[in-house]
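Shipment paperwork, digital attachment
Item: protein structure file
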Amino acid sequence: MAASYITDGLWTKAAVHLIVKILNNKWVLRVHPRLSPSILFVSSKLCIKLTGFATLAQADAMRFVAEHTSIPVPKVYCSFEHKGLVYILMERLPGRMLIDGWLARSEESKARILAQLKGMIQELRSIPPPDNVAGVCNVNGGPIFDMRLPDKLYWGPFATIYDFHRELRNGTEAFHTNSPGQERFPDMARLIAFHDQAGFRPVFTHGDLSSLNILADGDKVTGIIDWETAGWMPPYWEYATAWHVNPSNPFWREEVDGFLEPMVHELDMEKIRRRYFGEFGIDM
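Attachment content:
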């Protein structure tokens, strides 16, 4: 899927710029303060995402998911880049983030929501990859974006999952028998063996299924939002990223197995990878 600038032309972009300017006016902010640093709520039906991070691929990911599934995602009306910023004019979905009031819900309410999520994610994971995708990339075949990965924001694209795994561990290869590295990093051999195994096939992945990115109205899931980390990823990536929860919603870790297939071994391997290479990598 080629990169797409979803736009109705100069007048639409000019209107978006004008709306952003008005909503960022200090007098307007006194009356209507921003609830999110990157989202401007235009009306009950529209919002604008404005960010200096990520790329237009997140707009294309929402369009791609809308075309291939029944998952409720925001409809994108206009998207473009201007002076280093990404602008996305999109539908404002109804509902509240699951983080709001989740702990106060009954077990029956939680079960109904998790069952809906499970069906949606199964549908997402059932999308077949394009013939030319065998590795890791965003929906357009370009680099993936993820602020949680070490050292850089953009990774790839990678022709194979093996290439992605090797990059994740800074090119580290298996230690020679009885080398000092075996004693210093006893789990490294297990991680490398896991990374280097054949058979991984990319799966379309949201990449951040936090309670902050799922909307519900009552017991009905009304939207999955924030697709900036979406792309074709290893099959365990969705589970591992969801399990490593945002610090603001630690309770969500207990719910992940309710809507994603548990991948215990794969999660253990990702924990090892994060321990050795997490934010800054290590000097081997």
